[in-house]
Design goal:
- This protein is of the alpha/beta class and 433 residues long.
- The protein folds into three domains: 2-123, Methylthiotransferase, N-terminal domain (Rossmann fold, 3-Layer(aba) Sandwich), CATH 3.40.50.12160; 132-374, tm_1862 like domain (pyruvate-formate lyase- activating enzyme, Alpha-Beta Horseshoe); 379-431, Nucleic acid-binding proteins (OB fold (Dihydrolipoamide Acetyltransferase, E2P), Beta Barrel), CATH 2.40.50.140.
- 35% of the residues lie in helices and 23% in strands.
- The chain has helices at 11-26, 50-63, 66-69, 80-85, 87-92, 108-116, 165-169, 177-189, 213-222, 241-249, 266-272, 278-291, 310-323, 350-374, and strands at 2-7, 30-31, 40-45, 74-79, 98-100, 121-123, 147-151, 153-154, 173-174, 194-198, 228-232, 256-258, 296-303, 327-332, 379-388, 391-396, 401-405, 414-423, 426-431.
- The strands form five sheets. It has a six-stranded parallel sheet with strand order 2-1-3-4-5-6, sandwiched between helices. The protein has a five-stranded mixed barrel with strand order 15-16-17-19-18. Strands 7-10-11 form a three-stranded parallel sheet, with helices on both faces.
- A hairpin with a 2-residue loop joins strand 15 (379-388) and strand 16.
- The chain is globular, with a radius of gyration of 22 Å.
Length: 433
């Protein structure tokens, strides 16, 4: 039996798919080369904006052809769109045989059995079930040998007024320290060097079990063999001075943080219910710089939130100029059903969003080209993750892609390099040792 998984959305969804692969492998399934050869197709969905929703329906339209060739093949939908839509999704797409969400991925074996017996297996729960921790009993199956995601927290307790995540992923639930550390130990034994801790709001990890997030950083760093640590996504509000201090103190924590600002105008930030002002965000950036030497930043921006004026948008551009992010993920505001912002007055027309977006991209392009050239002739440490077209590739501690000419087997090794030339999204480097 062969499976094919198509994944949309954030890194947590990708990590969920890696866990689903682990469950399927434990059932004897093997990966299919492409969907046409599969006996089971799973779409792990995202519903953060309208576009990903549409992609799911168009993929279902394509995948349903599999039943002509292989009538016993099963099509499943899981993830955030499944959670948000429930039975309505099956009414729209009757081809779906099984459906569940991130709450109950561990029930996949039972759901497959039901579907194989000819029943439509739908298990969309209102709340996460008590036995959801059974999920951690399954290993993940990863494509990247050396860098591994580790989900440490599920759900989100913030209420950003544009966001569906609290509804699709439920309340914040921190995974226990023991469970995380035992996964980290197993990963290191498997050859992993870089641990990437994941949560929608990862800096809030531990709040519900009475442990501060920095404690997790210290404990992961104590596991023998962990060479690098990253974490995503930090929320500015929960990013305390103790966390910044730990980032500076722990040698394995990389000098980079993804810290979504969303908007530069404090008025808009208030309407978004982000819990900080523009000034407070910029103070967090300064605090991080003071504890973590050479730290770089990336961020998420929403353009055209309801009532956003030209002046508000200028404030966003101002944050870009002040912080000089190495990466900016920008999105046009997309109204999501059942969120407070959906029914706010002052929705912004699409052509205005598009114009603002291209101004933002233009500005970021020039900032990034300056940043890129500032890397030339510097020394960097790179963890080699792969080998492509005669070159080793990997990321610097500051999260930039580097390619390196070299001999021998450098895979999985941290090497020192000198940057020869640097373009916005890649750098050519020379091995120093
Ligand atoms: N937990 C993370 C973000 C998760 S969603 C955080 O708090 O920052 C990833 C990104 O999608 C968000 O940072 C935001 O920029 C974007 N996003 C979320 N909802 C959106 C919406 N309704 N329209 C446009 N972009 C949205
Ligand atoms: Fe969504 Fe806000 Fe939670 Fe991020 S912090 S997942 S944007 S509600
Ligand atoms: Fe999308 Fe769900 Fe992640 S809505 S961004 S897959 S948490």
């Amino acid at each position: 039996m062969k499976y094919y998984i198509k994944t949309f959305g954030c890194q947590m969804n990708f990590n969920d798919s890696e866990r689903l692969r682990g469950i399927l492998h434990s059932m004897g399934y093997q990966p299919a080369q492409n969907w046409e050869d599969a006996d089971l197709i799973l779409i792990n969905t995202c519903t953060i904006r309208e576009k990903p929703d549409q992609k799911v329906y168009s993929h279902l339209g394509e995948y349903k052809k599999i039943k002509e060739k292989n009538p016993k093949a099963l099509i499943g939908v899981c993830g955030c769109l499944a959670q948000r839509m429930g039975e309505e999704l099956v009414q729209k797409a009757p081809v779906v045989d099984l459906m569940f969400s991130s709450f109950n991925m561990h029930q996949l074996p039972e759901l497959i059995q039901q579907a194989q017996a000819g029943y439509r297996a739908i298990a969309i729960l209102e709340e996460p079930p008590e036995d959801e921790d059974r999920l951690w009993d399954f290993p993940t199956i990863r494509d990247n040998q050396f860098c591994a995601y580790v989900t440490v927290m599920k759900g989100c307790d913030k209420n950003c007024t544009y966001c569906v995540v609290p509804k699709t992923r439920g309340r914040q639930r921190s995974r226990s320290l023991e469970s995380i550390l035992s996964e980290v130990r197993a990963l290191v034994e498997d050859g992993v060097k870089e641990i990437h801790l994941l949560g929608q709001n990862v800096t809030a990890w531990g709040q519900d079990i009475g442990i501060p997030f920095e404690e997790l950083l210290y404990r992961v760093a104590q596991v023998q063999g962990v060479e690098r640590i990253r974490f995503t996504t930090g929320h500015p509000k929960d990013l305390t001075e103790n966390i910044a201090k730990a980032m500076g103190e722990i040698p394995q924590v990389c000098e980079h943080i993804h810290l979504p600002v969303q908007a530069g105008s404090s008025r808009i930030l208030k309407l978004m219910d982000r819990g900080y002002t523009k000034e407070e965000y910029l103070e967090k950036i300064e605090m991080l710089k003071s504890y973590v030497k050479g730290i770089t930043f990336s961020t998420d921006i929403i353009v055209g939130f309801p009532t956003e004026t030209e002046e508000d948008f200028e404030e966003t551009l101002d944050v870009l100029k002040k912080v000089r992010f190495e990466q900016v993920f920008s999105f046009k505001y997309s109204p999501r059903p059942d969120t407070p912002a959906y029914s706010m007055d002052g929705q912004i027309p699409d052509d205005v969003k598009t114009k603002r977006m291209s101004r933002l991209l233009e500005l970021q392009k020039s900032i990034l080209s300056d940043i890129a050239s500032s890397y030339e002739n510097t020394q960097q440490e790179v963890l080699i993750e792969g080998y492509e077209n005669g070159k080793f590739i990997g990321r610097t501690r500051t999260n930039r892609w580097a390619s390196i000419k070299g001999q021998g087997n450098l895979l999985g090794r941290v090497v020192k390099v000198k940057v020869i030339s640097s373009k916005p999204y890649s750098m050519d480097c020379e091995l120093l040792e």
